[in-house]
Amino acid sequence: MKIAMGLIFVLVGVLLIFGLFTGDTLLNAFVNLANYWPIILVFVGFSILSSIKGLRWIRYLNALLIIVFVLFIFFWPSPFLSGERAVKDTATLEALESSRSIEIQLNLAMANITVEALEEEASSTAAVIDYTVRGSNLRIEEDKTQLSQKFVIRPDSNVSWLGTSTIVMKLNPNYNYILKFDSAVMNSRFNLGELKVDELKLNGAIIKAELDMSEVGPTDIRVNAAIINSEISVPDNIRSILRANAAIKNVKTDLPYTGTGEYVFEGESFDFSSYLSFESAILNLKVSD
């Protein structure tokens, strides 16, 4: 039991340091403990058996199981956070008549994100967001100036970091966008072909991203993470300049390119240039048309 107590103190300390320890976190642990407390009897039984000569090896198995159980009660979403506690809803972002540029910031701990073009909606609709967030609703904060708007989207509660959120963001092709997404673990798909995205920034620890580049305007894309696995589709009508910096990197392409420090992909004719920058420790990147 010393292992369990020590590990609990370590986990609480780490969560407090990173600002992730909340009342919801504690409640989640208590709910899991209340549901699975009979497992403690198993640990007590193993502890008694390990005192018998010839069964001393059980103490190592018991220690491993205790560690797994402590991690389980803290990180496994309890019934409090799952099932009916998963919030599914749709949010609509409205654009002002004077808006020329719309910035959308999204902050989620773990997320599956899809960005695509919006079809058959009112011209004043900047975005329609279908979302599923575990144990929380989304809070949308708006800041506006004469020519631009900024929307900051984040969960209402820190409890959502215990589960993966799903976001489907549909954008109006009539507006120019700046997209900034922050997520510790991100699995994403960006269908930007019909969209005018001036800037796309992705930050996280682990990012998987499938990118279809915009065919209607230049885009500045920056991806920063410890581990990146990405596939990029480059249209014929653009010139794309790719910079990939990583300690370990694997860049594969079936397209002709020029450059040494930079990869420059361009078709027979191009209308504009887009820029891509990847910064990571480990990078796996595939570029195709």
Automatic annotation (TrEMBL):
Protein name listed in UniProt: DUF5668 domain-containing protein
Membrane spanning stretches: 33-50, 57-76
Species name: Mesotoga infera
Alphabetically ordered keywords of this record: Membrane, Transmembrane, Transmembrane helix
